[in-house]
Every structure is written in C-alpha cells, then in structure tokens.
Design goal:
16 strands, 2 domains, 3-stranded mixed sheet, single chain, Rossmann fold, globular
Length: 284
C-alpha cells in the first residue's frame, strides 16, 4: 500500500514514501512541516522494508540507498528521513547535500548562512543550538541541501542533541532543552525550537561562510582564522552526498562552493564560549 506523506514535495520531483503508518507517524513527529507529496509521473519512491522483528531498511528508486538494518523507533524514522533526502538530492542534478549544521547569525536581516563543518562528534549540533540560544536562527543541525546557485534549503527537521549536556551548559540552555525536548531515545533528545528560532521547510538563503571546526578536549579559548579553499574542500569531500556526480565533477562543484564563500577555521574547547565568541565576531 502506498501512503501519502510524509513525502518530500520538492520543486521538481516529489518523493513518495511507502512505509507502515507507525513509522510514518514517528517520521512526521521529526519532520512536522514536510508537505505531503502527491503522485506524479516523475515521482521518486522510497520504500520501507520491515522484517518480522520490526527492524527496517530502505530502498529508493533514484539511488542505491545504504543497505542498513535499523531497529524500530526514532532511529528508523531518522533513517527514513535520510533516505528521503537522499532520494530527492539524487534525482535532481542541481542539488547536493552537506552533512553540516547551518545558522543565520543575524535573524533580523540575514545576508547568508554560516555553515559548520566537522567530523562526527566535532560538536556541530551543540554549537549550532548554542548559537540559536544566543540569538541566531537555525537552518539545520545535520543536513543542508545546497543548490548549484549556492542556496541552502531549510528542511524544518527537529534538531537533536546528545545527552548528557556538557557541564559547561548555562542554566538557560539546560532550561531551553528541558522545555523544548519533544522525544528521547537512547542518548539523543529531539528539540522543537520556536518558529522564530528555526527556519521553516523550504526557506532558502545563500551560503555566505564555511567554518571548519576543531574542538579540543582541553580548555581552549575560541580562535577564528582564515581557511584556505583547498583545506575547506578537503573537509567538504567526506560530508557531501551527491551520488549523481562523478568524483571529478563533485570535486569541481565543491571547489566552486568553497570559492564562493568566506572560508574560516574555528578552534575551541567549549561550545557555549565559542557560540558567544562567534556571535560577536560574525554579527552582521
């Protein structure tokens, strides 16, 4: 049975999801504002294959989705979301997707996005949410679709943080997480920022700067330095999803991305100190 939504009504090719209703409900809780996608001749299809034990894996008609088996629950819903985003990107040659966090530093009159790049556990989500708590506007904490004209698209997904929070988390941030937490699974908590604090699904802004992150396990005052294009591209390569591009075309595309932005490098020890520092240094 084919279910309508939560699909992904992209401007060019809708993504239709075929999944059990329980999984769709969990996905909707994480992507509450995704528009439902109606069938069309050029629609892309994502299918959830459920085993007897409730575990699930996904297939997509536009690319070879990773053959990963996920347990039922929020983890499976997150996997479905990732597969839907992948299916959209793979089906539309003008898009790529960055595994990155992004914020608009000045939400009143934003001139572009600040994108945070780093390896897993580099602190992207915590730093992004610390920036939001300090007054920035969240575009994403994990996935940023990027068009070939450098427009970063907000997906309106619930951001998530790993618990426990750092000992350095201010009381106001701890209260924010407690008040805005919508669901927990394992060590992850999913948050629901206010409409003013998070961009809605489909909103776009040009990417203005790329910041590569280097978090130190030791106390270290935040320091922002200029980053080179080649070094930034090196960070972009492993965090870019673009199955429709061959390696050389992808490299050329990423060099164009880095060349169009201000490339910076942030070394820091504490996310909240770094957020305050960035709000002062980058305030528009």
């Amino acid at each position: 049975m084919e279910h309508r939504g939560p699909g992904f009504a992209s401007p060019t090719r809708p993504v239709i999801v075929d999944a059990p209703q329980a999984l769709l409900d969990l996905t909707r809780a994480q992507a509450p504002h995704w528009p439902e996608a109606a069938g069309a001749d050029n629609a892309v299809h994502v299918t959830a294959l459920t085993a007897d034990d409730g575990s699930v894996r996904f297939t997509a008609s536009s690319y070879d989705a990773p053959d990963v088996v996920l347990p039922s629950g929020l983890l499976a819903a997150n996997g479905l979301i990732g597969t839907v985003i992948g299916a959209f990107v793979a089906a539309d040659p003008e898009w790529i997707c960055l595994h990155a966090a992004a914020v608009a530093i000045s939400p009143v009159d934003p001139s572009g996005l600040t994108v945070l790049l780093g390896d897993t556990m580099a602190g992207k989500s915590t730093l992004a949410m610390a920036l939001v708590e300090a007054g920035a506007r969240l575009w994403c904490d994990d996935r940023l679709p990027l068009s070939d004209d450098m427009q970063g698209m907000a997906l309106g997904l619930r951001p998530k943080l790993r618990l426990p929070l750092p000992d350095s988390a201010p009381a106001s941030f701890t209260a924010f997480v407690e008040a805005r937490g919508t669901a927990r699974e394992g060590s992850m908590v999913y948050l629901a920022p206010s409409e003013q604090a998070q961009a809605a699904f489909g909103e776009v802004l040009p990417v203005r700067r790329l910041i590569t992150l280097a978090r130190s396990p030791q106390p270290q005052a935040p320091k922002l330095t200029q980053g080179g294009i080649a070094e930034t591209v090196k960070h972009l390569v492993p965090v870019t999803f673009a199955p429709h591009l061959d390696p050389m075309t992808r490299l050329t595309r990423l060099r164009q991305v880095a060349s169009a932005c201000e490339c910076l490098h942030l070394t820091y020890g504490d996310s909240f100190e770094a957020a305050e520092f960035l709000m002062q240094e980058l305030d528009e």
